[in-house]
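can u do me a favor
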């Protein structure tokens, strides 16, 4: 993806499959179901390709996620797997069409962001194909100006919560200062590192999640709608009439026009 050409602040939204996907949905049950399916496919991949028992596959999966931020990073590093084959058999194999559908509440929230003050940008540890499919199914793919994803085809896989991934996001979004970066993610580690780097990070918990022993960042929410209360200046007046809004100035491209084909 080409680097952004504008220097206005950016709001980075996570949609990662690395912990509890997809985190952009405002209905949490589908996210839990996708999470369970994802874990099953990863474990199945480890059993089949590494000849592991089910229990050993689960243990290795958890170990690599904790150590590297993504299971695939450990698999490429230590087992020389084909990352794009992994993507086809895991991320792209998820039956997302059975659990995701257009989300009107989410669309209203994103559409109400004031584009003269903030640019919404997707920031994911997933590969581009998964990210595009999720936002398309949720009906919000035209509400983002760009996408920073984990490039499984690159010689070295870079992902959150490592500094290089945050620098990549800033570069691609065309935002020079950390203070101009807003970020919402469901991962404690991702939010903590963003906070340490000077980003305004918001840790998204599910309604029934316990509070972490230590907050990841200054802000902690249980619904994306709470972003309106945290950052009211970034939102226009609410669209109470329910009329569909896009909200983009005519010279700002949307994700559909920026990312036209799969890698």
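np, heres the sequence
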């Amino acid at each position: 993806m080409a680097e952004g050409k504008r220097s206005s602040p950016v709001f980075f939204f996570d949609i990662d499959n690395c912990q509890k996907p997809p985190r952009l949905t405002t209905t949490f049950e589908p996210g839990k179901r996708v999470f369970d399916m994802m874990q099953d496919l990863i474990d199945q991949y480890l059993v089949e390709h590494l000849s592991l028992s089910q229990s050993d596959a689960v243990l290795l999966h958890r170990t690599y996620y904790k150590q590297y931020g993504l299971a695939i990073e450990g698999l490429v590093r230590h087992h020389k797997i084909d990352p794009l084959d992994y993507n086809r058999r895991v991320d792209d194999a998820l039956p997302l069409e059975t659990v995701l559908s257009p989300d009107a509440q989410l669309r209203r929230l994103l559409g109400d962001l004031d584009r003269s003050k903030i640019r919404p940008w997707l920031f994911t540890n997933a590969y581009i194909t998964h990210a595009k499919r999720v936002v398309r199914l949720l009906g919000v793919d035209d509400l983002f100006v760009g996408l920073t994803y984990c490039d499984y085809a690159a010689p070295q896989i870079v992902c959150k919560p490592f500094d290089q991934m945050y620098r990549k996001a800033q570069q691609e979004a065309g935002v020079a200062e950390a203070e101009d970066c807003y970020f919402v993610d469901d991962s404690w580690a991702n939010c903590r590192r963003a906070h340490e780097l000077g980003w305004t990070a918001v840790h998204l918990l599910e309604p029934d999640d316990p509070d972490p022993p230590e907050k990841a960042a200054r802000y902690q929410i249980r619904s994306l709608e709470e972003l309106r209360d945290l950052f009211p200046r970034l939102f226009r007046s609410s669209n109470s009439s329910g009329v569909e809004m896009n909200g983009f100035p005519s010279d700002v491209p949307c994700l559909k026009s920026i990312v036209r084909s799969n890698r």
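Residues 17-23, 25-29, 239-252, 257-263 have pLDDT under 50 and may be disordered. hope that helps!!
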